[in-house]
User: Fold these one by one.
Assistant:
Number 1:
Amino acid sequence: MKFDALILKIASRCNLNCSYCFMYNLGDTTYKKQPKFMTVDTIDIILQKTKEYLIKYNKKKFTFIFHGGEPLLMKKQFFKTFIAKSNRLERELRNVAFHYSIQTNGVLLDKSWCELLGKLDINIGISIDGTKKAHDMYRLDHKGKGSYDRVGKGAKIVKRTLDYLDIACVINVNDAPEKVYTSFKKMKASMVNYIIPDYTHDNYPYAANENETPMADWLIRLFDIWINDPNRYKILMFNGLINGLIGISKSDDNESRVLVVETNGEIEAIDSLKACGHGFTKSNMNVKTHTFSDILYSPLGKLYFEDSTTKLPGKCLQCPVMNICRGGRLVHRFKKDNGFNNPSVYCEDMIKLISHIQHKMIQLFPNLYEGRAIEKMDYIEINNFLNNNSIKKVMPVYSKELENFGM
């Protein structure tokens, strides 16, 4: 098992109604059958299963991520109870270190929440989609009102109280990257996780033809601003791509491996795959009746945890940047007609972005590449090669297995 974190869906409802949300607005309505909140009894079972998992796989670090819906709809006592119980487990296991984080839309953040979460050592991540214009375009409340001003107020309180500000930003290519970058600088962000929207081949809205790369063009402009700023904040995506390109580290994949537990204890591989359709992520497994590793007996769980970066479409296997891209996020490869037997909807975007970053690294750090016989990537040449008919016809022996996930 490759995961070192649990996403705990402690609240299955939200006080916002973001139009792009895979939980509520991309066709999956299974949340309606979920309890609104996770119970203390479910906590006890989760911690017991966590103990069994850590011992079986000899894990030394583990993270609990409080998520939703909106996790701050949960009462404060829930977090006190959870941390007290997990602290006891940590002392019992002795050689395991627990870490905690929470991802919130920020609307409910105030000084009392920040002080409590700080005291419990729960790192706060806030979802802010760039400028007020971009944020309020999609992140609305249930009355149709924008949430930027309320979230911004919460962000200021976090920065003032805890002296850091970690942000998750879903990219909106209609908002200028220069303005987005500057807006987060003004907030004094410590780190920003820029997130590529979770579109599939069935609902990808951007390019009118295969030669358009709006996501790459946006990210390249952002990268150039960021790399030339001596006082830059941390951007996870760029750090990961740079590390891969210069050989500092090599990850098995390009997205964190996490297991999801719903409010009623149901176990799922990853919640972003809800964008693939109603009930798509359901495994019919529950912490009350299954162990965490049982997820490997689910076809989707096995693909996500074991095969998603090795069982790639034929085009990916021929790609010169495969070891950096690793096929992209699984959700971006989905199409109802043939499941996951497709390159990412952002395939050309990623090739273009990776090529650009490689060129910049060679320019800035020539000594790292000296004597390594590494050529500059040519985005157009790579793209022409991958669009060759003979490449398109490459069909790995497991292609049918990937296609079986179609609906």
Note: Residues 161 and 245 are 37 Å apart (CA to CA).
Number 2:
Amino acid sequence: MKRICAVTIIICIILALPTAAVTGEPVVQAPSAVLMDKTTGTVLFELNSHERLAPASVTKVMTLLLIMEAIDAGTISMQDMVTTSEYAASMGGSQIYLEEGEQMVLEDVLKAVVVSSANDGAVALAEHLCGSEQAFVALMNQRAEELGMTDTAFVNCTGLDTDLEASEHLTSANDIAIMSRELLMHEDIKRFTTIWMDTVRNGEFGLSNTNKLVRFYSGATGLKTGFTARARYCLAASASRDGMELIATVMNAPSSDERFTTAKNLLDFGFANYTVITAEPQQELTEIPVLLGESDSVMPVLEESGGILIDKSIKNSVTTEITMADSLTAPVEAGQKLGQMNVMSNGEILQTVDIVASREVPRLTVGEIWLQMVRRLFMAGDAPSVTT
């Protein structure tokens, strides 16, 4: 017990150390790993990223994704009562010891799965959504295909791999990063993934997060640990700093210490060397004249665009270049492309953002055009003459 406590303290000290500048490649103490930017999906570092390995409980990232998508779609609710089946109650490994017939509000079951990796809770959620774990797994594989997770085949919703069939339960560090990114799009999941300690059953059953980064890494936002004798130590870790969120996935690490240290090294490398910026035009956008329109002009605006992931070394060299129409002829549609802004660094285009019309400008009718011409002629005729 003393040795376990000592190792835990060492891990905590390592994870709590401040991030230093990381100029070389990160030290990876695992056979497979990926570092991905959440905003753009850009892979910043990879090592054997497509090697198919057992993921253990990191599997539950997909389980949680399907549950969050169903909640957002209104198919199920956080306030649903989830009833435990005999099968769900029989799950081994990490669990909250649900009993057959026990009911628990879905929000608490979800919390138990996220924080304490409850296998019984994961199966109960799967059955609640799809009627059976088998039907839920079919949905997991369908969603994996939709996301382009070409290295993945799910057999169950927990990551347990003790039976023969589970030998086919495989994924990769790359695919884990993909599904982790998709899960993090659901901001509400962070209510659970950032919990260090909590309870269910009205405070009677304690939960403790298996992801030590949540407590000891600055900006940690989650996400999920995993371990079995076959999979070894796995981790999907995420953290956010200065508007940039990163995802580090580690598979098959030889120890828990090396799992967390590798994830920290990957995240440190990303935050030290990259940043996400939102480029703004360096010249003011002004109204564009509109001929034959109900309005004489229209205001151009930048179409909404995602952030740009850049190496920090070029941040001060980023410039913008705008090309835009000098004038328009009605009709003009709202959102119509009027030009574009190129975001550049040292002559290289980093991003192109469309410039569009802020509103529509309908075309004048023939009668309105004739009336407008008459008014202009009349006003010209009324102009005072100037003599010398």
Note: Residues 58 and 226 are 5 Å apart (CA to CA).
Number 3:
Amino acid sequence: MKRKIYNQILRWKQIWDGRTALLVDGARRIGKSWIVEEFARNEYKSYILIDFNNVADGIIELFEHHLTDLDDFFNRLSILSGVQLHKRASVIIFDEVQVFPKARAAIKYLVKDGRYDYIETGSLVSINHNVKDIVIPSEETRIDMFPMDMEEFMWAVDKGMLWDFVRDCFNKRKPLGQSLHRQMMELLRTYLLVGGMPQAVAEYVEKKDFRRVDAIKRNILALYRNDISKYAGRQAPAVTRIFDNIPSALQKHEKRFRPVQIRKGARMRDFADAMFWLDESRVANFCYAATEPSVALSLNRDDAKVKLYMGDTGLLVSMSFSEAQLEIGGVYEKILRGKLEFNKGMLTENLVAQLLRAAGHPLYFYSCASRENKDDRMEVDFLIRKEAVTSRHNILPVEVKSSSRFTVTSLEKFKRKFTSYIGESYVMHIGDLEIKDGTVFLPLYMAGLM
């Protein structure tokens, strides 16, 4: 399937020309191995893929005993793989490099040699778990990869022309019109249910069977829980409880993670290590409170206030409903038709978080619970920063609404209080694009275009 990260990898190849290796980092099952091999097949004269989850003993022996003589190392590697290597025209892929840390340690010397390019794939949490007794190479360029976003999903279902029109409407700030907007909302609900895990998307494209898609997503969730048990060590019980708590936390009004929901009397610092592990796994998207909406959002981050969103909304759907509920209640069909009564705000806000994160935005929100001044009481779902920073008006507040009836009281308070910080303000909603009272009301499917 077509993925945007392909062009990022191409830029790395063109800019660095072998002076660094590339590390593609992301959660399990998001398509890292597939896109890297596709890139190697298209952009190089030859490539060797070493999958450290399933590697021959002879390859392991090369890293153990032959790295001191790289001429001998490459000659043996070429013979064992049956692939001829060409100077500055071949790439060697270290797939799931975390399984064999010595290979990652060798990157320093292989890059310095300069004959070939090197691409590594892995999950950061498992990579960092396996670094004992090795030197972490500084000769790495890292690219974050995420599940398929709305645009990539549109490509997969052969609606690329429609998406080009959506993008044009966003850029020109004009509505799609009733018919095309209705079609896009149906596609958005489909994307919400299927999610962006490539295996689930491929199954949907081929079979159009949500039950088969759901089975794939539950297998992925089981894999994530197995990874927690395998890599989280002493933190595994805490990480599992936080992970399993995400749907219930998102159903609450504030949607914030509260330690007392996990253990009575607990505080944030009691779960600091577990939260760090979950953040590195990329399974969840962390959204931190900003105490002030200045351009330096990271410097105003309040680690004590955080929302946890699932990295993929399709996985959140499967976490939120049992298989029996999906089967007996026809949940998928009802959500697809917009007929199911439940906390739609949970899925909608998670979806916007997922699309913003895939678009490269770190996630922040603003919240003030002042008891003294009602004008200070407000909560804005997301704050993102303009791509081109200016002297003022760099922060773009984003509110998310899941129904046709809503107010924008918090957003209006926020705009009045922080007028010098604020650029364009957005409300993501189920309606078509419109501009009203200085606020841009965007349809939900445009979230990744901001």
Note: The longest strand covers residues 301-310.
